[in-house]
């Protein structure tokens, strides 16, 4: 039961009791109204009412005192709660301020990182565009491959030579598209492909005469170099640089036909006097096959002795001199030695080969004077 209910109950019982007492006294007063001496019931009524008033005051002040104590307790609790709330609010404000500062620092860091990343991406894009411009200006086809042989980038020359667009090549396996077959149409296994080997074993590979296949299904002769791409000593792919040598091969073949059709013997020498090529007339006159002379000293095999059999020093040989001094040397009466050991009289001109400003060898044109006579 609540305190309010107790107060009401007590007050109700008090008034009920007083009402019953007053009713009893009224009955007594009426009954003794004609008697001379009677109990002063009016006095008793006054006393009863005063008692009720006193009891009511007692209950009121008791309740007021109780409520006052409760108020003081509540005020104390409120004060304590207010202090706690103030402390919590202060702590919360400090935490919010700290978190706000941390968030501002984090936001500042994120903004700087985003700005740096945007700048890096912009610089990377600029660098990629510049690199692509450099690649596109190259005269040779350039193709980048990953470790699976898939195309990662191509330059403009490569797309022109292959007939495939960059979008058609990138992401597809290079070997399956342009290097899948030999010239005769037989299958070219990827494991045997030098380009494939470069990103498998990390070594450089080159071919001076191979073929690639165009989108149209036609093949063309190429010379290429396949170089592995390294990242922290780890192979991540390969770069293939190639060029169309079809015209060069055709020109070389025509040159060979012209040279082999000449009636004079023609052979080439490197800077050390070793044979680099010879025509058909030279092989007929000397009796040596081209494969037997190429890479060997011309003087030691063909021009080693004078007509009397004495040794012919190489440093005195006009042919060898052209390889050393860069001057044209002509001899109208000399001898060459054939493979069978016989000599024959020759007339020759030794002309130096100069590439750029560098002396790289000589070309010798000779004829058999015995046969000519």
What report would you give on this structure?
By secondary structure, the protein is of the alpha+beta class. It folds into 3 domains: 1-137; 140-244, PAS domain (Beta-Lactamase); 260-372, PAS domain (Beta-Lactamase), CATH 3.30.450.20. The protein has 12 helices and 10 strands. The strands form 2 sheets. Strands 2-1-5-4-3 form a 5-stranded antiparallel beta sheet. The chain has a 5-stranded antiparallel beta sheet with strand order 7-6-10-9-8. Helix 1 packs antiparallel against helix 2 (41-137). It is rod-shaped and about 195 Å long. It starts with a helix and ends with a helix.
The mean pLDDT is: 84
Strand order of the largest sheet: 2-1-5-4-3
Content of β-strand: 15-25%
N-to-C series of helices and strands: HHEEHHHHEEEHEEHHHHEEEH
Main sheet?
Answer: 5 strands, antiparallel
- Sum up the overall morphology in one term: rod-shaped
**How many beta-strand runs?**
10
Q: In angstroms, what is the radius of gyration? A: 60 Å
Unreliable segments (pLDDT under 50, ≥5 consecutive)?
Answer: none
Number of domains: 3
**Oligomerization:** single chain
Straight-line distance between termini: 154 Å
Count of DSSP-assigned helices:
12
Which structural category fits the helices and strands?
alpha+beta
How are the SSEs ordered, and which strands pair?
Layout: H1 3-31, H2 41-137, E1 141-146, E2 151-154, H3 156-162, H4 166-169, H5 174-178, H6 194-201, E3 205-213, E4 219-231, E5 234-244, H7 246-261, E6 265-270, E7 275-278, H8 280-286, H9 290-293, H10 298-302, H11 318-325, E8 329-337, E9 343-355, E10 358-368, H12 369-372
Antiparallel strand pairs: 1-2, 1-5, 3-4, 4-5, 6-7, 6-10, 8-9, 9-10
């Amino acid at each position: 039961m609540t305190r309010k209910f107790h107060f009401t109950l007590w007050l109700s019982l008090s008034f009920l009791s007083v009402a019953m007492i007053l009713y009893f006294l009224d009955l007594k007063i009426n009954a003794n109204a004609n008697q001379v001496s009677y109990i002063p019931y009016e006095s008793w009524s006054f006393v009863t009412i005063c008692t009720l008033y006193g009891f009511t005051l007692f209950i009121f002040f008791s309740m007021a005192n109780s409520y006052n104590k409760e108020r003081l307790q509540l005020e104390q609790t409120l004060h304590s709660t207010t202090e706690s709330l103030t402390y919590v609010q202060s702590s919360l404000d400090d935490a919010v301020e700290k978190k706000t500062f941390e968030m501002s620092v984090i936001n500042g860091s994120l903004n700087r990182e985003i700005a740096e990343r945007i700048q890096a991406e912009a610089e990377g894009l600029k660098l990629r565009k510049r690199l692509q411009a450099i690649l596109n200006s190259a005269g040779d086809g350039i193709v980048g491959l990953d470790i699976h042989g898939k195309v990662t980038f191509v330059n403009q020359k490569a797309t022109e030579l292959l007939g495939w667009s960059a979008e058609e090549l990138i992401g597809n396996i290079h070997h399956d598209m342009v290097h899948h077959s030999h010239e005769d149409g037989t299958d070219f296994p990827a494991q045997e492909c030098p380009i494939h080997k470069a990103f498998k074993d990390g070594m450089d590979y080159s071919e001076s005469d191979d073929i690639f296949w165009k989108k149209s299904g036609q093949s063309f002769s190429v010379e290429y170099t396949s170089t592995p791409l390294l990242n922290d000593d780890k192979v991540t792919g390969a770069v293939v640089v190639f060029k169309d040598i079809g015209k060069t091969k055709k020109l070389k073949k025509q040159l060979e036909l012209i040279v082999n059709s000449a009636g004079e013997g023609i052979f080439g020498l490197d800077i050390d006097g070793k044979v680099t090529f010879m025509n058909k007339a030279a092989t007929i006159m000397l009796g040596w096959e081209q494969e037997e002379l190429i890479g060997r000293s011309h003087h030691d095999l063909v021009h080693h002795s004078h007509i009397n059999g004495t040794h012919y020093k190489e440093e005195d040989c006009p042919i060898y001199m052209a390889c050393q001094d860069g001057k044209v040397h002509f001899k109208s009466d000399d001898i060459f030695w054939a493979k069978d050991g016989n000599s024959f009289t020759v007339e020759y001109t030794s002309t130096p080969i100069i590439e750029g400003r560098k002396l790289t060898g000589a070309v010798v044109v000779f004829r058999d004077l015995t046969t000519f006579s």
